[in-house]
Amino acid sequence: MTCRKRRINITIGTAGHVDHGKTAMVRLLTGCETDTLKAEKERGLSIDLGFAPCTIGDTGVGIVDVPGHEHFVRTMVAGAAGMDAVMLVVAADDGVMPQTREHLDILTLLGVADGMVVMTKIDRVTPQIVDQRSRELREFLKGTFLEGAGIATLSNMTGEGFDGFYKALTALIARVKPRSVEGVFRMNVDRAFSPRGVGTVVTGIPVSGSAAVGAEVELLPQGQAGRINAIEVYGEAGEAAMAGECAALNVRRWDRDSIRRGDTVAEPGFFRPLRWYVSSLRLLQDVRFVLKNGTRVRFHTGTSETTASIYLMAGGQASAGDELIVQVRTEDPLVAGPADRFIIRGLSPVTTLGGGMVIEPLDRRLRRSRAGTLEDLYKRAEAVGDDTAFVTYCLDVAGLCGVKPRDISLRIKAPLARVQAILADLAGGDAAVELADGLFMSAAAAQEAALRITRALRAHHVAVPESPGLSAEALEGEAGLCQTVTSAIARRMVAQGVARESAGRLALASHQVRVRGEDREVFERVEQIFREASFAPPSVAEVIEQTGLDVARVKKAVGSFLERGILVRVGEGLFFHRDAIAEAQRRLNCYIRREGRLESVKFKYLLDTTRKYAIPLLDYFDNANVTVRVGYTRYLKEQ
Description:
This protein is an alpha+beta fold. The protein has 5 domains: 7-175, P-loop containing nucleotide triphosphate hydrolases (Rossmann fold, 3-Layer(aba) Sandwich), CATH 3.40.50; 186-266, Elongation Factor Tu (Ef-tu), domain 3 (Beta Barrel), CATH 2.40.30.10; 274-367, Elongation Factor Tu (Ef-tu), domain 3; 386-514, Winged helix-like DNA-binding domain superfamily/Winged helix DNA-binding domain (Arc Repressor Mutant, subunit A, Orthogonal Bundle); 517-636, Arc Repressor Mutant, subunit A (Orthogonal Bundle). The strands form 10 sheets. It has a 6-stranded mixed beta sheet, sandwiched between helices. Strands 19-24-22-21-25-26 form a 6-stranded antiparallel beta barrel. It is elongated, with a radius of gyration of 37 Å.
């Protein structure tokens, strides 16, 4: 049964009480001995995880055999974390035993949702006992994910019942969906060793994504970079390791002595070892236990195990059967991602208390007193585990700031291409809006941003009707938006025809510049003065002195003319009428085209003005990329 025609990335696990025949069943099915340690063979029981390839029909899958003894439940948890379905094993001579119950609880808490039941050692009891145990099992399984599952009966010694067992296993494999390999590659390390001449090898079941030979990977929490030199899947050379199948990765640069069970191999850049994890937690219904703030427990996730403290996000305590949001602070930093399952066990007595799902890793502790925190966490918990829902959540919480695909990718631990595809679908369905610079917003946030800009512009038009609009900087402040969002939404509004931009000012498309009646005469007089002054314009103070007009109104007129481009600031306190600027540029262009260059000193003669005005004008044209200065000579800038 070791020859495989087609391999799919599914791992079926065993579970059940010690000495109920799990390892013998795997040996009968696969021909593989999963008890490989000397101590296991001497004691006749499994103390570590065992992995074996299995071919059912034309389909190859993996089998993980877990220890059943209560002293090795922590190892069982490590194995169960990689299961897609389970074979719950119960011996006919014993029936349901303590670890049967605990293993089923652990499987449920870890999210295993499918499986089958195998009653072994039927050669040791009468048919009547087999029937009795079957009834007891069906009663025991009520309300669990195995309720209604068929019970295959089997003798590992004689092979009796093997055909029915094999048929049931075939049906189970057919209905289990292989794990998606679209995610970011991550593998929880089960063990590490160093065969002579090969370098370091790490084994485990990848929880997400895939990695090929030659891929760059990172060992965490050590932070060591490496490259995969070779891959084996169930002992056979392979080109890639995929989520849901037991793999061995050869990475020569890593030091075998520094690697422990619970370490993580991952695609670089996505994961960091942290101590805080906000999580959803369910306490088992039948435990006699009260969870209080700061309660210390054993925390198991993936193949890692550490001591942790649990902090409730609401209330002072929780008891059997409660479901709640908590923060977990682990004693040792570990690597976990959104939707990872975990188990908590008591320190003394050592019993399984509950388990749940990581919502998100945290850099620091959340303050539960902050308004809206718990509500946000419930929304986050609902989104975790579904990439589209999590991307949508990220858009919603980004609000008016928007968010870039790369930031979402790093947060939800999904490949950038996957996030970009989801965002494109959301934008195509009018749930999201793509702005400039790779920025995305939810449709609701984009609508709110546009509304804020519209309100700010409308208020400005009413207050200052002579103004052509708001500058980008002023608009940011008035609308309460960041620069990137303001400019992006403004461009979007211009493209939609609801706004227009002129001379760096944004206005509603319907806005017409108007000067109030009491100001009109002052505006007309001031503009006339600057137009007639041409290449020797007065200062604002001189205009006021010459005309005797109201100071505030003159300054108001000059400010409006600068906004509208009627006056052009050439230097500090020096303003030219736009007609004068246009004429000065025309004369400058004509002269240099004819003569090839212009000596700076000659420019005042071209304009019939003084050096006080001519030199600032030349500097203005330099800055406007009309001319290029070389010493005291100007040339036309090549376009």
